[in-house]
Amino acid sequence: MTTMIQRRRILGALGAAPLAAASLPAWAQGYPARPIKIVVPLPPGSPPDVLARLVAERLQEAWKQPVIVDNRPGATGMIGMDAVAKAAPDGYTVGVMFLTHTVLPALFGKVPYDTSADFVPIANLVWLYNVLVVPPSVPARSAKELVELARTQPGKLTYGSGGNGSPAHLLGESFRQLAKVDMLHVPFKGPSEAVQALLGGYVSAMFATTSVAVPLVNAGKLRAVAVTSPTRLTALPSVPTMAESGIAGFDMKEWEGIVAPAGTPRDIIAKWNHELTSIMQLPQIRDRLSELGMEAAGTNSPDQFTALVRSELQRWTQFVKTTGLKAD
Predict the structure, then answer these.
(1) Which domains does the chain have, with CATH numbers?
(2) What is the pTM assigned to this prediction?
């Protein structure tokens, strides 16, 4: 009898061993133990994509596992973020979240996920600034001249963007409101398509990210009339800020960070945050970001990034309500 009881206990213990191991935190089991995926909700070559690839390369070196950048463009980033929200919360799928995702809920009324509840913010990585550019066909050499031109032709000048709720859309709407001009928003399927339309003269103006605008301005294909940064950009020292151009109250900068699906263990979130913070402090990474018109956000905890996302959700919900901003 005693022998039979002992056998049952031994067998029970052996059967419970896998369950006990499975209940251990993923990090305690040697995370990461297989390839990792970073979902970018925009096409290759976009600022979030470039950032993700810089990070992926360093993560591979540090963690000795493949880090795959998975581009999931569409619906102004909602398709990609929905994939992240629905992924297993095990640390092997994360995504790049940016400012746009805190505008979409208010702009569309409904998105396929809950921005405030379905993600765990890990770390904000960068701040970005934009350049107000026009094609050579538009006879404006400053923001002031663009405003004057728009006032003489109400409703005829247009500004392009990569889609409803995109940073270029928000910047264009802010410009329209603050400058008190009547300009028509023209959304495209992505920032690359919008830039091509601008180069072709199909739209009158656009707020383009520094990494996109500077090469085109230097090549003479576009004209820069103002920058959204608080001080002049090193890459465009002769281009005035919006404040210098007489448009006060223009306070907006983009951000891009990494988020995981809700439910991802805190120890894995902590490991990601530690590694991302280390990567963003590397001089070569900071220099490369500067070349791309990005500024490393500095050390920030998951709680701090969570606070940023929540404050941006509140800010843009209020913006949509007070301005009556609509999806075109």
Answers:
(1) 35-127+253-323 (3.40.190.150), 130-227 (3.40.190.10)
(2) 0.82
